């Protein structure tokens, strides 16, 4: 792995896991020493993270972790609604009965942890559910964009946005319906529309959380 990519992975990982908080300055000297490089590979990594919308340059401060506000959160959900809807439609032709049974198992586990009010595990299982579908999507560029958008939402949650647990019961019910559509080999259009609305329902829950 080259030093620029190593620096990128180090900084990105710390942003996504909350080690670097929004507004925190990235010290180039420190990163360069950690990865055993000059400033040049670190600057290259910073430029990539700027393109990922995880870092921004501020006057007199340099590279700082981007503060993701409510507007960006909502826009990311809207983007995911479009991307995930299409990815679900593209995936259906490549899914077997075994693949669909995997979705059933994940959703049943989600119902179980919901009764235990284990929201962290619920959130991870929810991600597993959707990516178990997208793993069959032949458009890898589309999946890459979805992954980046999910990571941005993970950063938002790490940064202290309130989780809205009232959405969880409806979410698993909608998963049941999505599984039914996949089993019945419904049209791509109906699958895309349902998957899109599923994500938009999360946005509605966020807007109505107060």
Task: For this entry, give a set of tags.
Four Helix Bundle (Hemerythrin (Met), subunit A), 4% strand, two-stranded antiparallel ribbon
Describe this structure in words.
Residues 1-68 form the HTH gntR-type domain. Keywords: DNA-binding, Transcription, Transcription regulation. A hairpin with a 3-residue loop joins β1 and β2 (62-65). The longest helix has 22 residues, at 70-91. Strands 1-2 form a two-stranded antiparallel ribbon. With 210 residues, it is mostly helical. The protein has helices spanning 3-16, 28-35, 39-51, 70-91, 97-115, 119-134, 140-158, 168-183, 188-207; strands at residues 55-58, 62-65. It starts with a helix and ends with a helix. α1 (3-16) crosses α2.
CATH topology category name of the largest domain: Four Helix Bundle (Hemerythrin (Met), subunit A)
Q: pLDDT below 50 for ≥5 consecutive residues: which ranges?
A: none
Shape: elongated
CATH superfamily of the largest domain: GntR ligand-binding domain-like
- Class by alpha and beta content: mainly alpha
Biggest sheet statistics = 2 strands, antiparallel
- Tell me roughly what share of residues is in helical segments: over 70%
The first-level CATH class name of the largest domain: Mainly Alpha
Mean pLDDT: 87
Keywords: DNA-binding, Transcription, Transcription regulation
GO molecular function: DNA binding; DNA-binding transcription factor activity
Domain HTH gntR-type: 1-68
Pfam family, one: GntR
């Amino acid at each position: 792995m080259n030093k620029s990519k190593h620096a990128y992975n180090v900084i990105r990982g710390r942003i996504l896991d909350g080690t670097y908080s929004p507004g925190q300055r990235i010290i180039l000297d420190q990163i360069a020493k950690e990865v055993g490089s000059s400033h040049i590979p670190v600057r290259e990594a910073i430029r990539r993270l700027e393109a990922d919308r995880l870092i921004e340059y501020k006057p007199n401060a340099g590279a700082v972790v981007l503060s993701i506000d409510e507007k960006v959160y909502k826009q990311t959900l809207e983007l995911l609604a479009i991307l995930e809807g299409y990815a679900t439609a593209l995936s259906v032709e490549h899914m077997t009965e075994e693949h669909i049974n995997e979705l059933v198992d994940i959703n049943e586990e989600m119902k179980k942890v919901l009764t235990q009010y284990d929201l962290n595990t619920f959130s991870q299982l929810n991600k597993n559910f959707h990516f178990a579908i997208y793993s069959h999507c032949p458009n890898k560029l589309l999946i890459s964009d979805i992954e980046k958008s999910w990571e941005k939402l993970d950063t938002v949650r790490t940064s202290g946005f309130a989780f809205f647990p009232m959405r969880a019961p409806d979410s698993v019910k909608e998963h049941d319906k999505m599984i039914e559509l996949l089993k019945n080999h419904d049209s791509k259009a109906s699958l895309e529309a349902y998957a899109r609305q599923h994500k938009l329902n999360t946005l509605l829950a966020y807007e109505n959380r107060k």
